[in-house]
């Protein structure tokens, strides 16, 4: 399980209290069981790869919406 403490377990604290408790907005907490470390690494890598893929697609959509992608027809 992966959570963001700033928006879950520590949401009742203000920014200063969160920082004092060691929680920042970009802090995540990873909770794992007794899986083999290689399995955990593989699961995380798969998730990171998927995030990168989605980010690329969304970035291309944004570029396309803003008209910043140049289109070239084959043979032109």
Structure, described:
The chain is 46% helix and 5% strand. It is mainly alpha-helical and 76 residues long. The chain folds into two domains: 1-31, no CATH class; 34-70. The longest helix has 29 residues, at 37-65. It starts with a strand and ends in an 11-residue tail after the last helix.
**Mean pLDDT value:** 87
Rg, alpha carbons: 20 Å
For the report, how would you describe the main beta sheet? 2 strands, antiparallel
Task: Please work out how many helical segments DSSP would assign.
Answer: 2
Taken from the alpha-carbon principal axes, the silhouette is flat
Q: How widely separated are the two ends?
A: 50 Å
Biggest sheet strand order reads 1-2
Q: What helical percentage do the residues reach?
A: 40-55%
Count of all domains: 2
Chain-wise SSE layout:
Elements: E1 2-3, H1 15-20, E2 29-30, H2 37-65
Antiparallel strand pairs: 1-2
Keywords for this structure?
76 residues; mainly alpha; 2 domains; two-stranded antiparallel sheet; 2 helices; 2 strands
Give me a quick take on this structure:
The chain is mostly helical. The protein folds into two domains: 1-31, no CATH class; 34-70.
